[in-house]
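Tutorial sheet, problem 5. The three components below are modelled jointly, 511 residues in total.
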Amino acid sequence: MQQKVKQWLEDGTIDVFLGYKKMDNHSLPHCFTQARIEEVDDLVISLDRYPLEKIAAHMTALKPDLNVGMLARDCNQRALNVLYIWNQLNPDQIHPINVNCCPSPLKEQADCSYLKPAAVGGYKREEGVDNTFQPEAFHEYGQEERLARWMYEFQKCIKCYGCRNICPVCFCKECSLEHGDLIGNGALPPEVPVFHLIRAVHMAGRCIDCGLCEDACPMDIPLRLLYRKVNEIVTQVFDYKTGTSATQSPFNILGDTVTLEPKPIQLSGTDNG
Amino acid sequence: MGDCHYLYGNYMTIKRITFLQELLAFLGLEGRVHLAWISSAEAQKFVQVVTDFTEKIRALGPNPLPAFSHNKKAAASEILKTVMGHTPESTAEKPPHQAGHLQ
Amino acid sequence: MECKLVPSICSYCGTGCGVLFEVIDDNIVNTLPMKTHPVNEGKLCIKGWNLHEHVNSFMRLKQPLIKTFGRFIKADWDEAIGLAADRFRNIIDQYGPDSVGVLVSAKITNEENYLAQKFARAVIGTNNVDHCARL
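Model answer (structure tokens):
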């Protein structure tokens, strides 16, 4: 890997390489350049993940003809694909070096989606939503209980916007989450559950299930579970796999026509949980 | 479908509404969003759909969300208590299943 | 084009969360939480997330301003400190030292906080010292 990066930097294939470097025992993202090529020897694949593609997007926004190489785990690669599709990055300028991340005995080709989440405390298990749930498992609760549990989680929100800020596929200049009429200003918690639902809806067809949002959430809201459900709906209803499908999501303006029909009003059996 | 004044309008609408219905169901707010195609010439159908939907909403009861937003965290806990029929602290038998299907 | 990711400490409160500044061509463009930092473990509050904004903000104060006839006029440090000292002297002479309080902040260092309380107790002569992070 180091050899390849050095070679790329030397023959001018790439101008910069985004990877990780150990610094005082912290593996931090680092930008390797030809001027300081000896640093490439310290290039590591860190277990701590940062949105490298976001940094790449910031750089190419300032210098459009920059060639960027970067370390790409499966999640980075999915994020790159989404950013290519939405014209935030040019695939010709990005040179990913794919690495298999998070080795685990469960899966040879493991990616971060299969990382074992941290154990969840007892109180959260009683009152809130267990971060380790899969969407189907959570759906086994009754309807009212689902709502109560989610509201418990959402009310913890301190509106730090961390989930949006760290998100590798969030690139809008103007964000609905900052819109004064949609989300009231200056109140905590932000209007529940509107804040989280707006973000969830906007993540449809974007979210690549990297889990950085949940990682960055200071209040430990199980965002990944919520967006997994979002992804599940997008996959089941629209047959669109975010991060691997080659077209823009079905929610795009002038997207494909669909064969869905409005659901009839069901007067009974509202609780199918 | 497709004969919307805004050309693609109803295709886009049904995508979003279907998605929203699924998502709200996941959060426990089922049946409160409904979509029907009614042309401006279909007065009868309009009345029918509105009547049906009103009936349904009435059956579902008032919107549960304000209870949560005003009384903050206490509300969630209280409601959970009533839903589960006992205080959360005293539960030993609850979780309907063990979590974490991690393959 | 040069991009550096500079580890630093959030300056907003006494917690001391680790942040990474994304510096592109000597301009701070973004802030990221430091995942391996023992204090915040990859999490930040809204102030930490927006650290980069005040650095290059046009609203940032770069020199002292003196309010004269209701308007802020740019001044130099000697003038501003002289004015503040004179006013303090007047107030203390007129109402006594306990009419002055010193409010310190987690944004300055321990040593500066020490100096500030020393200033309050030894120079002004009051025990009215408080800290914005007295939780």
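Marking note: The longest strand of chain A covers residues 16-23. Full credit if you identified this.
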